[in-house]
Structures are given as structure tokens and as C-alpha cells.
């Protein structure tokens, strides 16, 4: 019975790579045992090139309107005379119409697949996030029995060594002449670059000598996809765009692309509006179609909206606020082989921190000319110490013309001390002197003790109507 996994060609021990002097000396001995490694990977569907395009020779010999003419027998006679000499009495079978061109002779013709699975003919590419699965066989090619065989298999990378198999506590009692001992090892690939599968055997040869056999099998791990991000901040909202590109030779079906925000953020994915006829249900949410990213450079974009979390701890917001979070990505290939990656922390664009923040919280929706209106303001202390007092006023514009919006009443509002991480709310009375779309500009704050002016509040657009 065919297994769901198919064997690839084993990596040659001779081409395993550089060996240490001890390993070289061990390799010069006459060993009874030898390792053979075969990567376990799924078969592939091989399209039949002949079924991709059904070619009819009549397309070459007959004119364009031959099959659509009122007398199709004329086309048949023409083709008969062209393909067969005058002395041949053989008739040309077939239906001389376009209808015959679209008939499927076999159900597999619809997919251009012959119905067969093709085993990999090479070791293949290994990508980060996949599970490397290998079938290892240690063979006894001598005429003697090998006894008390201790087998070890490990993966070596530039950073670490991972032990996959160790039979030291329960050695294989014997491997007879012409026999073998087989086992399967698996490893979740979490590093890029060169990897070495090291297989060693310690055994008693036929003459009782204790021998040590090391063999090395090298392979390289590549990156299956890349994640490029862009961060934009508009007022209190941060937008994160992620572009995922497929670098493999196989289509990737993204089961999960989740952004895990840092503690101080709340993330919402923004998607295009669905068609009105789309039916949403609990079952539909559970059975979502995976996102297809095509092989060889296909891309897909994700957009997230980030807002500050409801936690009002100013200390947690002020520290480490540049970290937005990380992505958890899982996918499957054409035949269901899984993969999983986690990106590094994504950082926001660094911004200068403010010890005090002044903002407008509410502006009246209806404003009449030459009638006072109130603008609600909020002053927030973003430090761990008490600040203040402050003065808030409307700074004079650079132009000599009269302001369209002026302060009504006291020209300066005096605010008391503000405790650490606290806020105070207050109102400023203004009056508009001109109709139409106007701007409230120049709301400025001044720290009395520090004798420091802060940046004016951004302009606020209003519409002034007549009574």
C-alpha cells in the first residue's frame, strides 16, 4: 500500500561535506555498517503536457470558415484529398465540427492530470517553519554480524545541536549480515542556513573490535516567505500594513495570519466589504477559505488598525511603546504539508515623547456667527511627577488681518497643578466673526514655572452659519 509520504533520493555520504580529522580517520576504516538517508516528503501531481492543449490537425490545413460553412462535407472532402492520395480509399473518420473539439475523453482531461502521483527525484528544498522528516537506514553489508549497536542522530546548526535519536540506554542487540535497522527522525526547522544531519554508530565488529562510524549529511534551509511592513500613525490611530511574499516553488495556502499586538495595543484587521449576498454564519467563520499566495513571488497584503488599549497605566504606555507586536503565520502547501513562522517584534516609527498633552475633545456641531460657543479641552500629564501651573490662550496670528475666531472673555485661562498621569478638563469660550468654513488656530499652552511655551494645538476646522 502506498504511504502518504514518498521517499526522495538519499543524500550521498561522500558528498556530506567537511569532516573532522577523527571522522576522516574513522571513515578510512573498513566498516561493516553504513548509513543511508532518505528524506520523507509528499508526492506531487504531475500534469500531462499532452492534455493541456488539444490540437486538431484540421486547424492547420482548413481555412477559418471551413467548419462553419453551409456544406461541411466540402471540408471533409478537402481534408480527405490532402491527407490521402487519390489511389487511397481510406475515409477520414470524425465529426468535422467545433463540438468535437470540447468533448472530454476522460474525466482527468478536465484537470490535465493523468491520475498518477510522482515521487520527488531529488532531496528538494527545505524551508524555515517546516518539519524535516527523514527515513534513516543503517545497513550491514559485511559477512559478519554487528552487535551492541549504539545509534545516535542529531541536527547541528551554527547555534546549537539537537539530539534526535540516542539508543545508548537500549542498544540494538545485533544487525545480521545483509540486514538493516531503520528509524525515522523529525525536526521542526527554526533556523536558516546550513544544517548537518550527523549519524553515528558504535558497534562490535565480527572480530570483536569496537568501531565508531560517523556520517554527515548536509542541507540548507531557506526562507519560504518574506514579511514587509509599513507603519503610519494618524492622530491616535496607527495603521500597520503587512505584505507577505511567497519565495517557494509551491503555492501556499495561508491558514492563519494573526497579528499579536503588544500589551499596550488593540489590533483590528481591516478587510474589504463583502458582497451583500454573502451569508455570514458561525459555520462560515469556522470554515474560512485559506488565502492563496501563488508560487514564485505571489503576494498578499494585510492591513491592521492599532489603538491604545483601555489600560490607563501611563507608565506602561510610556515604556516600550515602540513595540507594536508580532505575526503568527501558518500555511499549507498543495498536498497539505504544514508550515509555521513567527516574525520578530515590529516597531513603530519613533516619535518624540511629550510630558504634557493638550487636545480638543469636543467642538459644537452648530456654530452661529457672533454668538459665543464652547470648545472642550483636556490637559494630560504624561510624566510621573506633578506639573504646572499653566496658562492657555489664543496666540496672535502672523497675518495683520482680523481673526475669524477670537477668544470670548478672559484672554488667558489659568490651570492648576496636574498630578502624575492625571488629566484635567476645561472649556474655552470663543466667538466666530465670519461666515463659512473657518479655522480655530493658535490655542497655545505656557508653563509658568518652567517658562516654556508648547506647540500650538493643530488647527480645528468649523463651519459658521448665520442665525
What keyword list fits this structure?
single chain; 467 residues; mainly beta; Immunoglobulin-like; 5-stranded antiparallel beta sheet; 32 strands; 8% helix; disordered N terminus; TRAPPC13_N; Trafficking protein particle complex subunit 13; TRAPPC13; TRAPPC13_M
Based on secondary structure, the structural category is: mainly beta
Basic shape: elongated
The number of distinct structural domains comes to: 4
How far is it from the N-terminal to the C-terminal residue, by CA? 88 Å
CATH-assigned fold name of the largest domain: Immunoglobulin-like
InterPro entries: TRAPPC13 (IPR010378), TRAPPC13_C (IPR055428), TRAPPC13_M (IPR055429), TRAPPC13_N (IPR055427)
Domain Trafficking protein particle complex subunit 13 middle: 225-346
Pfam family, one: TRAPPC13_C
Domain Trafficking protein particle complex subunit 13 C-terminal: 365-455
Please specify the SSE layout and strand pairing:
Blueprint: E1 6-7, H1 21-27, E2 33-41, E3 44-45, H2 49-52, H3 58-61, H4 72-83, E4 117-118, E5 126-127, E6 131-140, E7 146-156, E8 161-166, E9 172-175, E10 180-188, E11 193-204, E12 210-222, E13 225-234, E14 237-246, E15 252-261, E16 265-270, H5 282-286, E17 291-293, E18 299-308, H6 314-318, E19 323-332, E20 338-342, E21 346-347, E22 356-362, E23 367-368, E24 373-381, E25 390-394, E26 405-407, E27 412-415, E28 423-432, E29 436-440, E30 443-447, E31 452-453, E32 460-465
Parallel strand pairs: 5-12, 23-32
Antiparallel strand pairs: 1-2, 2-6, 3-4, 6-10, 7-8, 7-9, 7-11, 11-12, 13-14, 14-18, 15-17, 15-19, 16-18, 19-20, 19-21, 22-24, 24-28, 25-27, 25-30, 26-28, 29-32, 30-31
Amino acid at each position: 500500500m502506498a504511504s502518504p509520504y514518498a521517499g526522495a533520493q538519499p543524500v550521498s555520504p561522500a558528498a556530506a561535506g567537511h569532516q573532522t580529522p577523527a571522522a576522516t580517520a574513522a571513515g578510512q576504516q573498513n566498516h561493516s555498517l553504513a548509513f543511508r538517508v532518505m528524506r520523507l516528503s509528499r508526492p506531487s501531481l504531475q500534469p500531462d503536457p499532452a492534455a493541456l492543449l488539444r490540437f486538431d490537425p484540421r486547424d492547420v490545413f482548413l481555412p477559418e470558415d471551413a467548419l462553419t460553412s453551409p456544406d461541411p462535407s466540402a471540408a471533409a472532402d478537402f481534408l480527405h484529398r490532402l491527407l490521402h492520395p487519390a489511389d487511397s480509399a481510406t475515409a477520414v473518420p470524425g465529426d468535422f465540427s467545433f463540438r468535437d473539439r470540447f468533448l472530454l475523453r476522460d474525466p482527468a482531461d478536465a484537470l490535465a492530470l493523468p491520475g498518477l502521483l510522482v515521487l520527488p527525484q531529488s532531496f528538494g528544498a527545505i524551508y524555515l517553519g517546516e518539519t524535516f522528516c527523514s527515513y534513516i537506514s543503517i545497513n550491514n553489508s559485511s559477512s559478519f554480524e554487528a552487535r551492541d549497536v549504539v545509534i545516535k542522530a542529531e541536527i547541528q546548526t551554527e547555534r546549537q545541536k539537537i539530539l534526535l535519536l540516542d539508543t545508548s540506554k537500549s542498544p540494538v542487540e545485533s544487525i545480521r549480515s545483509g540486514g538493516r535497522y531503520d528509524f525515522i527522525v523529525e525536526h521542526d526547522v527554526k533556523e536558516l542556513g546550513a544544517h548537518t544531519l550527523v549519524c553515528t554508530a558504535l558497534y562490535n565488529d565480527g572480530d570483536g573490535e569496537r568501531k565508531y562510524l560517523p556520517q554527515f549529511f548536509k542541507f540548507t534551509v531557506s526562507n519560504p516567505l518574506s514579511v514587509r511592513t509599513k507603519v503610519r500613525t494618524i492622530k491616535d490611530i496607527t495603521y500597520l500594513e503587512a505584505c507577505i511574499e511567497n519565495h517557494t516553488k509551491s503555492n501556499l495556502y495561508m491558514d492563519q495570519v494573526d497579528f499579536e499586538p503588544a500589551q499596550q495595543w488593540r489590533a483590528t484587521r481591516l478587510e474589504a466589504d463583502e458582497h451583500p449576498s454573502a451569508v455570514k454564519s458561525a459555520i462560515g467563520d469556522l470554515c474560512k477559505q485559506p488565502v492563496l499566495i501563488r508560487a514564485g513571488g505571489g503576494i498578499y497584503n494585510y492591513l491592521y488598525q492599532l489603538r491604545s488599549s483601555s489600560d490607563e497605566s501611563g507608565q506602561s504606555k510610556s515604556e516600550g511603546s515602540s513595540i507594536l507586536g508580532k505575526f503568527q503565520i501558518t500555511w499549507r502547501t498543495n498536498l497539505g504539508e504544514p508550515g509555521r513562522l513567527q516574525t520578530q517584534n515590529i516597531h513603530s516609527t519613533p516619535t518624540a515623547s511629550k510630558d504634557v498633552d493638550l487636545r480638543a475633545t469636543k467642538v459644537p456641531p452648530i456654530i452661529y456667527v457672533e454668538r459665543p460657543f464652547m470648545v472642550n479641552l483636556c490637559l494630560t500629564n504624561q510624566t510621573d511627577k506633578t506639573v504646572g501651573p499653566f496658562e492657555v490662550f489664543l496666540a496672535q496670528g502672523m497675518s495683520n488681518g482680523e481673526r475669524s475666531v477670537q477668544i470670548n472673555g478672559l484672554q488667558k485661562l489659568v490651570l492648576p497643578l496636574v498630578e502624575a498621569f492625571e488629566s484635567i478638563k476645561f472649556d474655552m469660550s470663543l466667538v466666530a466673526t465670519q461666515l463659512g468654513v473657518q479655522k480655530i488656530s493658535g490655542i497655545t499652552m505656557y508653563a509658568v514655572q518652567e517658562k516654556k511655551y508648547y506647540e500650538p494645538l493643530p488647527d480645528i476646522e468649523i463651519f459658521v452659519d448665520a442665525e
